[in-house]
């Protein structure tokens, strides 16, 4: 599990990964912004991801988390990694498919669903 933003794995050169730390615009997503206590923000994010269908929280701390999400039909596993960056007031996020080449936008949609739920629970 990553422990600092620099330790989020880079996206491979395939269109089945998105990351807030990606340098390729096609793979880039915005980090998750939060205010207040970073540990509370990570607990809130953990609850958001754990509530998603077919999600398994593999490891989670107040600084980082790693979750696996399975596709409904073929049960493919995608990895979601998040690391809090308290200095910037954001949580860096990466979502990537383990197999295949294209994900047909599933990882980007997942990150945006996480963002929407995270922002809603923060109000």
Structural account:
- This protein is α+β, with helices and mostly antiparallel strands and 123 residues long.
- The protein has one domain: 2-Layer Sandwich (TATA-Binding Protein), CATH 3.30.310.
- The chain has two helices and six strands; from the N terminus they run E-E-H-E-E-E-E-H.
- Strands 1, 2, 3, 4, 5 and 6 form a six-stranded antiparallel beta sheet that branches.
- Helix 1 crosses helix 2.
- The longest helix has 16 residues.
- It starts with 16 loop residues before the first strand and ends with a helix.
- The mean pLDDT is 92.
Number of domains: 1
How can the largest sheet be summarized? Answer: 6 strands, antiparallel
**Roughly how many Å is the radius of gyration?**
13 Å
Which outline best applies? globular
Q: Which stretches are poorly predicted, pLDDT < 50 over at least 5 residues? A: none
Structure keywords:
123 residues, alpha+beta, TATA-Binding Protein, 6-stranded antiparallel beta sheet, 28% strand
List the helices and strands and how they pair.
Blueprint: E1 17-19, E2 32-33, H1 38-50, E3 55-60, E4 64-70, E5 77-85, E6 90-97, H2 106-121
Antiparallel strand pairs: 1-6, 2-6, 3-4, 4-5, 5-6
Nutshell version of this structure?
The protein is of the alpha+beta class and 123 residues long. It has helices spanning 38-50, 106-121; strands spanning 17-19, 32-33, 55-60, 64-70, 77-85, 90-97. Helix 1 (38-50) packs across helix 2 (106-121).
